[in-house]
């Protein structure tokens, strides 16, 4: 590879850290926002592999002159019978390049053919057809499509020094014909990535190139921690083991991200991007491609080919970014293509007319005559399975897509295709090559197998409430070792006294004494953690969050801390099982506000004067209520406990707060005689209570737990429009992967980067906003809370009271009749 004279790079190269996809330590559950670099695919490795310094490729353009009148003729190897003739031709030697392509203005003649041959080490290749992309690229009519230039696909020819191109047609010569050659330059990536050449297809596992945005960091809290997090008990009520993540044997569940070489590590220079790709809510299908070139490039040349394709697409074709979402080299290594693909979903320029609904994986090579190697097939299947899991679709299924206008389908045409298909299924193209196309069904099958192996299967059951009791307290050694949960560590516990067929548990998790900003995730035991978190905390904060989560083997649940050591307390509120009789009925209304006198006298709840609330208009047979409890204007630090009226107060807590702090948390509380609930506070405070559903004997919806996963993140345009939620606007989020029969969801909702103190309200899409709230957040903090909401058309609406705020949602399960 050649170095650019004006961009020589330091000689010192730090070797890449190689992590094998199948053997890498599982990523910890991700906080909605903390000081460690994060993305919705999980916490990044503590010691990520170094990124390569950005390299600016050099793009040189040559006009392709018309063949002189009377000299146009068919060329050897062309289809003279079709009436085509060579109308333009040029040859250039002594010019160093790695990637080349042809561009022109206006529409291409229907019979346009572009052929190229390249020279390396004094040897010319045979003539190769460069497929003309009249629409395959950005979607027609899109902003990116309007600014793009017509042309061919790129030919990759690493370390070449000569090229000849000829243009054939029976019609008029296209205007503005130009040959673009790209010298990708030299980068440390060439040596470091090349040094781990991996024909087995395991690749390297660098850190994500997506840096944390403003919504990914929160200022450390400066307030003192409350010492009254919760009362402790000494009776061991769980079986538990504390381990490090590295020592945890990950059983089934969820599809892990395969090893992916990031843009930063293959040397992408983002300053080449003339615009930013659009963010999407997710994908419905995968499209398999190939590039065009000889399959003889070396392991060390692969990174330069990535840089060359990137430069051709952005500088010559005028696209916002490299067209493909992901690429795979002939050694089976996966590369991040379009920016943002590791942290969210990004609109590609890979299948014109269908980019809004599909993502593209392109194999670097020409597979017209030779098939994909085994390592390539494995790599493509892995990245497809991972993306399918993130977008909640089964790779083995079919899907109906709507064309935006492609070479094969007119705008508005609806077509039914396999969810994993070749490019030729959507466009008039030979891609991904005649030898590779028959392998697509095998890739589809392999991706589906990996996808199925990663799906957590929970049972639909009704609920049994219990008198709240402590099951884990790392401060005193209840249910777990007497030690803080370490960064990257885990605690697996099973509350005693539950039936053998338990499918999910409702618990309240409290953290205190965190050593740094961190998040806590909760997953069924044996399930690999995804990008979900249920609680965010930091030094000086005692934080609580309700969680409803499925159980793994033996009815066990696993707690994880992402990046800081922290004490964890868990209180059991109830469980779901075959023998449970209480289903969830929708009821969303405010029933208590001590500031105004709604439901109780207009005065603060005092430690010496617990408040007993009669929840009016409960259905006959109500056994428990979901109460979203908000503490507002407390006159001291303390905690709030809600329990059945007429019962003894349990030694547990539901809401933890500091002086003057507004805090909310969901509490699932059994009701006492007459539908009563008692609320006790250890410090004087006003309390607001909103009913978020009631559990009624013998009726109501059943809960189906899922492997916790991110379904909404406004920081990346995941599941909803990109950008913060602004007061006065309603965010509509589509919850992927739940059945049409679902009438409610349980979701851990996180709020961060608030510009003002605000509250969020979640409710079924298309319905009137209720006078309730779910999450309270202030600037500089990330706050999470369990939300139980109705749902309509697989969508929920979210509103913010004031200012703007980033919203993140992690699905825990859904309710259906």
Low-confidence stretches: 1-49, 198-252
Main sheet record? 10 strands, mixed
Class computed from helices, strands and strand pairing: mainly beta
* Number of strand elements: 46
Gross geometry = elongated
Radius of gyration: 29 Å
**CATH homolog superfamily of the domain at 190-215 and 257-453:** Peptidoglycan recognition protein-like
Helix content: under 10%
Distance between the termini: 63 Å
Task: Output the keywords.
single chain, 817 residues, mainly beta, Jelly Rolls, Lysozyme-like, ten-stranded mixed sheet, 6 helices, 46 strands, 8% helix, 38% strand, disordered N terminus
Write a concise synopsis of the structure shown.
This protein is mainly beta. Helices cover 8% and strands 38% of the residues.
Explain how this protein is built.
The protein has 817 residues and is mainly β. Among the domains are: 58-183, Jelly Rolls (Sandwich); 190-215 and 257-453, Lysozyme-like (3-Layer(aba) Sandwich); 582-697, Jelly Rolls (Sandwich), CATH 2.60.120. Helix content is 8%, strand content 38%. Strands 3, 4, 5, 6, 7, 8, 9, 10, 11 and 15 form a ten-stranded mixed β-sheet that branches. The protein has a six-stranded mixed β-sheet with strand order 13-17-16-18-14-21. Strand 5 and strand 6 (123-124) form a beta hairpin. Helix 5 (374-391) crosses helix 6. The longest helix has 18 residues, at 374-391. The protein starts with 37 loop residues before the first strand and ends with a strand. The model is unreliable at 1-49 and 198-252 (pLDDT under 50).
């Amino acid at each position: 590879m050649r170095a650019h004279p004006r961009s020589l790079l330091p000689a010192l190269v730090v070797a890449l850290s190689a992590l094998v996809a199948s053997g890498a330590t599982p990523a910890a559950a991700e906080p909605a926002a903390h000081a460690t670099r994060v993305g919705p695919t999980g916490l990044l490795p503590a010691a990520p592999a170094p990124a390569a310094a950005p390299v600016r490729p050099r793009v040189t353009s040559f006009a392709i002159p018309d063949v002189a009148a009377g000299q146009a003729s068919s060329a050897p190897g062309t289809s003279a019978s079709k009436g085509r003739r060579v109308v333009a031709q040029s040859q250039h030697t002594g010019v160093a390049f790695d990637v080349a392509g042809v561009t022109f203005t206006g529409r291409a003649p229907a019979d346009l053919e572009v052929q190229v041959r390249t020279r390396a080490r004094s040897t010319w290749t045979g003539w190769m057809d460069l497929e003309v992309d009249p629409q395959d690229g950005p979607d027609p009519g899109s902003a990116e499509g309007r600014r793009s230039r017509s042309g061919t696909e790129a030919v990759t020819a690493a370390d070449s020094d000569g090229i000849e191109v000829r243009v054939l047609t029976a019609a008029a010569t296209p205007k503005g014909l130009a040959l673009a050659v790209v010298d990708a330059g030299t980068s440390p990536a060439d040596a470091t990535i090349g040094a781990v050449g991996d024909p087995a297809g395991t690749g390297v596992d660098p850190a994500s190139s997506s840096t944390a945005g403003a919504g990914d960091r929160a200022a450390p809290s400066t307030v003192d921690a409350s010492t009254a997090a919760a009362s402790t008990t000494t009776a061991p009520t769980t079986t538990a083991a504390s381990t490090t993540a590295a020592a945890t044997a990950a059983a089934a569940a969820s599809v892990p991200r395969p090893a992916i070489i990031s843009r930063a590590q293959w040397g992408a220079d983002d300053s080449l991007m003339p615009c930013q790709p659009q963010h999407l809510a997710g994908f419905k299908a995968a499209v398999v491609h190939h590039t065009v070139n000889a399959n003889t490039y070396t392991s060390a040349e692969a990174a330069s080919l990535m840089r060359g394709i990137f430069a051709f697409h952005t500088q010559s074709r005028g696209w916002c970014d490299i067209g493909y979402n992901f690429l795979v080299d002939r050694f089976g290594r996966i590369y991040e293509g379009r920016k943002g693909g590791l942290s969210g979903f990004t609109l590609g320029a890979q299948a014109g007319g269908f980019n809004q609904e599909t993502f593209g994986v392109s194999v670097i090579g020409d597979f017209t005559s030779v098939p994909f190697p085994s390592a390539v097939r494995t790599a493509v299947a892995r990245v497809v399975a991972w993306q399918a899991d993130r977008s909640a679709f089964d790779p083995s299924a079919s899907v109906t897509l709507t064309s935006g206008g492609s070479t094969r389908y007119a705008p508005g045409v609806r077509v039914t295709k396999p969810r994993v298909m070749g490019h030729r299924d959507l466009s008039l193209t030979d891609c991904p090559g005649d030898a590779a196309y028959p392998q697509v069904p095998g890739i589809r099958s392999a991706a589906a197998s990996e996808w199925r192996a990663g799906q957590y299967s929970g049972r639909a059951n009704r609920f049994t409430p219990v008198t709240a009791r402590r099951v884990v307290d790392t401060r005193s050694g209840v249910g777990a070792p007497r030690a803080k949960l370490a960064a990257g560590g885990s605690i697996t516990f099973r509350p005693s006294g539950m039936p053998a067929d338990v499918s999910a548990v409702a618990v309240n998790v409290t953290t205190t004494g965190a050593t740094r900003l961190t998040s806590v995730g909760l997953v069924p035991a044996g399930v690999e953690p995804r990008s979900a978190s249920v609680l965010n905390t930091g030094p000086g904060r005692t934080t609580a969050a309700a969680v409803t989560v499925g159980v793994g083997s033996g009815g066990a649940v696993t707690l994880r801390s992402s990046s800081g050591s922290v004490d964890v307390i868990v209180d059991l509120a109830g469980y779901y099982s075959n023998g449970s009789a209480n289903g969830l009925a929708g009821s969303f209304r405010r029933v208590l506000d001590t500031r105004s006198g709604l439901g109780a006298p207009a005065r603060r709840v005092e430690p010496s004067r617990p408040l007993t609330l009669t929840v009016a208009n409960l259905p006959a047979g109500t056994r428990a209520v979901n109460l979203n409890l908000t503490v507002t204007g407390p006159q001291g630090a303390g905690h709030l406990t809600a329990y059945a009226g007429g019962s003894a107060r349990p030694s547990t807590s539901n809401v933890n707060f500091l002086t003057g702090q507004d805090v909310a948390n969901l509490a699932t509380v059994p009701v006492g005689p007459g539908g009563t609930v008692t609320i006790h506070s250890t410090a004087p405070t006003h309390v607001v209570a909103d009913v978020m559903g009631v559990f009624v004997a013998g009726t109501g919806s059943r809960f189906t737990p899922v492997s916790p996963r991110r379904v909404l993140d406004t920081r990346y345009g995941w599941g909803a429009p990109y950008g913060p939620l602004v007061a006065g606007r309603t965010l509509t989020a589509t919850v992927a992967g739940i059945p049409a029969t679902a009438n409610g969801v349980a979701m851990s909702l996180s709020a961060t980067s608030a510009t003002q103190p605000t509250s969020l309200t979640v409710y079924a899409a298309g319905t009137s906003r209720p006078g309730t709230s779910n999450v309270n957040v202030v600037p500089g903090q990330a706050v999470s809370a369990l939300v139980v909401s109705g749902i309509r058309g697989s969508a929920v609406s979210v509103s913010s009271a004031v200012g703007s705020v980033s919203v993140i949602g992690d699905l825990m399960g859904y309710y259906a009749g």
